[in-house]
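Q: What does the assembled structure look like for these inputs?
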Amino acid sequence: MPNIGIVGAGVAGLHLGLLLRKHDVPVTIYTDKTPQQIAAGRLLNSVAHHAPTLERERHLGVDFWPVEEYGYTCHHHYVGGSGPLRFRGDFSRGSSAIDYRLYLPKLTEVFQQRGGDLRIGALRTEDVEGVAGQHDLVVVSAGRGAFTSLFPRRPEYSPFEAPQRRLCVGLYHGVTPSEPKGVTISMSPGHGELLEIPMFSREGHVTALLFENIPGGDLAILADLKYDDDPALFTKTVLSKVAQHHPDTFERIDPAQFRLTSPQDLLQGALVPTVRADYAELPGGTFALAAGDAHAVVDPLLGQGANSASHSAWVIGRAILDDLGFDEMFCQRVAKLRSDVVLSAAQWTNLMLQPPPAHLLGLMGAMNENKAAADEFTDNFDYPDRQWRIVATADRTRAFLAKHGTVLP
Amino acid sequence: MPNIGIVGAGVAGLHLGLLLRKHDVPVTIYTDKTPQQIAAGRLLNSVAHHAPTLERERHLGVDFWPVEEYGYTCHHHYVGGSGPLRFRGDFSRGSSAIDYRLYLPKLTEVFQQRGGDLRIGALRTEDVEGVAGQHDLVVVSAGRGAFTSLFPRRPEYSPFEAPQRRLCVGLYHGVTPSEPKGVTISMSPGHGELLEIPMFSREGHVTALLFENIPGGDLAILADLKYDDDPALFTKTVLSKVAQHHPDTFERIDPAQFRLTSPQDLLQGALVPTVRADYAELPGGTFALAAGDAHAVVDPLLGQGANSASHSAWVIGRAILDDLGFDEMFCQRVAKLRSDVVLSAAQWTNLMLQPPPAHLLGLMGAMNENKAAADEFTDNFDYPDRQWRIVATADRTRAFLAKHGTVLP
Ligand SMILES: Cc1cc2nc3c(=O)[nH]c(=O)nc-3n(C[C@H](O)[C@H](O)[C@H](O)COP(=O)(O)OP(=O)(O)OC[C@H]3O[C@@H](n4cnc5c(N)ncnc54)[C@H](O)[C@@H]3O)c2cc1C
Ligand SMILES: Cc1cc2nc3c(=O)[nH]c(=O)nc-3n(C[C@H](O)[C@H](O)[C@H](O)COP(=O)(O)OP(=O)(O)OC[C@H]3O[C@@H](n4cnc5c(N)ncnc54)[C@H](O)[C@@H]3O)c2cc1C
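A:
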């Protein structure tokens, strides 16, 4: 029986740890924060889990927020411009968004109940080798900030040197959910996107507004404005920007009720989308495998990061369960098995961050008229590899639309 | 609906053509021999199909020789030396060997009945581009001899510059099948192997003896001896070599009945194991994908070539059915999807052709004592990727045996 060390108790580390514990594999997770610190802390993100991730949760017995009750079933698209587009795509299986400050502590607790060993303490890069000495394999899933020197950036999948969006995400009262309940993806050409997400948090059902602002655009200020300096100004600014750029969401806002659920429920910042090496051999001969954001950071625009991290955890876990060694051959196999989903999520997201090529604009226009195409596009949020096969080239988008009886405009 | 061109009507081309016809995809197979020429010709090989290939045949509705009646269920191992080893490994699902002079013409006929277009005529490399102009994709499955300049050799998977075995394969009367009916794999260290295969041919149930002779060894002469010059000498020499090197098969031979089923039922030669590039872009922009022996030639020692070719055909066929373009992205996806099986078959075979490292000798010794390990090893003839994960390193073999409660000697 192998003995596995995991660094980081995010979704990647926990899904892997729980899968291994289900099969009685000894696992230690090393992480820098207690579940209590996570639970009491600032908003971490506004993660939606798609159907394949929810299925993994059911398999692990950690589906504490059943999708039927907490989930949603569609994407509402709004594309601004002189002739705005409005269309809906339905998922064949629902998604859901649970505040990670509820989700991660609960899964950490279950991990410990199921015999997982949890060690609290921040590690530095030079500590990883010592950890490795106590395990057959180390999985580094400590997020996008730590241990980056272990896993060099892969330029062929990392086209950007700087953030492409300046983020402002908060949880709000005062937004009536869309009908049917879904995520609204609102695009303001040249300025960025708003993702409006029905989320379950400590305050119950609330709305996450994730502003994906193009640097230099009219909305970028939202990433800088300090709530604590002047809460009223912040709220007013958000409202006016939504009114101007994201009218479909604005329509469902009651200005009198509109406010952040708490000063802690706001996160502002930016990240550089980066794909790193899959693994590294440590000086002692043990291999360290990168997973989740430690392996591939994507902009949250398409909600792929955590789902990709969970997929990666699953591939790693199953490989651990059925392989015989934790050598370079093992790491290469994992790299190959997860590459379709993980790299496609990165490539698709990176394409959508850039000024849209003609075939993407054409696809949006076509989906506005063709519900079946919009449904398949929406379902492919669950399968980024399928989506990438559609959007990678104009010819492919043309073939996709032809399948749905539509011509690329 | 794409339109696919296939060069070569071997197992790769036919399995792909039949899969595509099952889904009404227009397919043309270009090949240099008529089914009648194949049927009336010299022995082509002594191919055994393993369970995954038989399953594909059932899926295609070309299971004309049901495995229950024509198949076999195990491998009998004999390893010569001062203390010979004798052990059996059972398959969980049977294999079978049907003379390709029955098999290929029958499948070609069915391909045509199902609307496949068959064009007879030898193509040269410079003709491929013209063919490509009439299709969305060309699959080159014309065996190991033709079009090699299109697909460069990949040295990292092609360790040999010359044949590692000198082959002599013939169909014989006068060999009583083993009990239970199976393939006997007999090893004469330093001289080579004999594969004794229960085969169905025009003469009914016969025995294929495939001598895999190490160049310079005592058996290498079998690849040179001309049957037609002196049939009696040939038969006598074969008999005496079997008696000396492969005693377990010899025991089941009735010398009075022992003879080739026909002068045509003999094939002598040698091949250089070679893995080539997965695909090439033709000058007109169409892609040519290599499949089967055109992509990877393995020595027949472990019976992997045709099964790997069929697997590759399947991967290609399914990718054609579910993808939207036949560009480089398509070819790279096929390359990735088939790499586990195809490259592992090559790597495992190439390892077994060389003087055995200590861990392989240890594995043989351990399987002699441990039936469960021998069964898993045998079943993995169906799954060369799993086998390669066991034999690639001594540590992995040790872990495999540990799983079966045995220590690597
Ligand atoms: C605003 C926003 C919205 C998002 N929306 C979505 C979405 O809708 N869908 C989606 O799939 N993804 C989304 N994402 C992305 C998602 O949040 C991440 O991809 C995912 O959480 C990464 O998980 P992880 O396990 O790799 O890393 P993390 O969740 O970052 O976990 C890292 C872990 O390592 C620990 N750690 C860090 N440093 C150390 C150290 N030095 N020593 C020990 N432990 C350490 C941390 O405490 C933590 O436990 C969003 C991200 C943001 C910012
Ligand atoms: C003795 C022996 C035993 C074997 N035993 C096994 C075994 O037990 N199990 C196993 O899996 N594999 C075995 N193999 C390997 C197996 O035979 C091959 O891997 C397999 O047949 C390759 O199939 P293919 O479709 O790629 O090519 P082929 O079967 O070689 O087919 C090539 C096709 O292309 C046509 N063609 C060739 N040149 C041209 C041209 N210029 N223009 C047009 N058409 C052309 C040919 O006529 C033929 O139709 C054995 C091989 C040998 C030699």
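The radius of gyration of chain A is 21 Å.
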